[in-house]
Structures are given as structure tokens and as C-alpha cells.
Amino acid sequence: MADREDAFRKIYEANSKKIYHLCYGYTGDDDAANDLLQETFLKVWQNLHKFRNQALISTWIYRIAVNTCLTYLRSEKRQAKDELTPAIAENKPEVFSEKNEQVALLYKCISKLEESERIIITLVLDEVPYPEIADVSGISEGNLRVKIYRIKQKLTELYNQHERL
Q1: What is the DSSP string of 57-70?
Q2: Which stretches make up the RNA polymerase sigma factor 70 region 4 type domain (predicted)?
């Protein structure tokens, strides 16, 4: 059992930041991203014995995270959103540096992309190797490079639209 826990701890340390970024890319919300991160790694822990080493473990974890995020988004669409009351809004600290604002804007722009584009660009931002991204997204590496180019163009347009506002 100690070996399993040690192996899981190493897997978590190696992958948690990237999975958080993926979840944040889907939700644009820190709390939701952290919840989805925990849910993803709970599933990893529960299913670690089923991992067959046919792909990289990080690819397997990305697939779990993507499915977890998609399930979350489908359930969110069915639930009515609560209004942000003034009391809650006042309790949110506005401590942003210019860089934090730019990163927040980038993730806001990413959240406007199609689901498949969000997966790809988030993995690119996390510097995941292209063969692994191609495996996760289910497309050829050549097609992936074209998609990444188009996604970057789209993101640039979205980002520039916000800058003009």
C-alpha cells in the first residue's frame, strides 16, 4: 500500500499543475478548477490498477481530466447560475498585477474556444510534447500543427478584441 501511495504522490506532483491549467481553461474559475483537479486525481487513484502502460500515464490522466471537465460543463449548463450578490462581490479581493490580468484575459479568451481547441491550446501552453497532444486529441501530428496555428490566430483575434474595449 505504501508503494502505491508513493507512486501516486509522484504521479500527482508530476501532473497536477498541468491538469489544473487544463481545468482552469475549461472553467475560468479557480475554485471550480481546483475541485475538478481533485476529482480527476480521485479517479486516477481509484483506477490506477487499471492503467496498462499502453500510453504515457500523463496522456491517460489528461483523458480522465478532459472527461471530468466535460461532465462538469454539461451539468453546469443544466443548473441555473446564482447571481453574484454585492456582498459576495465586495469580499473578492482585487489584488491583480498587470501580468495576472493578462493571464486571466488569456484564459477568458481560451474559454470562448470550442472544446477541442481548448484542450489543444491548454496542452500547448503546458508544453506537452506534440505527439502526446495528438494522442490525447485523437488527431495526427501534422493535422495538430495546422490546428494549433489556427487556434493561435483565433486567440490573438479574441485577445485583441478585448484590448480594444
Answers
A1: HHHHHHHHHHHHHH
A2: 105-155
Domain that holds residue 76: 1-88
**Number of folded domains that form the chain:** 2
CA distance 80 to 112: 20
Q: Are residues 71 and 108 in the same domain?
A: no
42 or 123, which is more confident? 42
CATH of residue 116's domain is 1.10.10.10
Q: What is the pLDDT of residues 58-95, one digit of tens each?
A: 888 988 998 898 888 877 765 544 444 444 444 444 44
Nearest to 64 by CA among 79, 32, 72, 107: 72
Q: Is 28 left (phi over 0), alpha (psi -120 to 50) or beta?
A: left
Q: Which pTM value belongs to this model?
A: 0.62
CA distances for 139 relative to 17, 62, 108, 125, angstroms: 24, 15, 25, 18
The backbone torsions φ and ψ at residue 144, rounded to the nearest 5 degrees and listed phi first, read: -60, -45
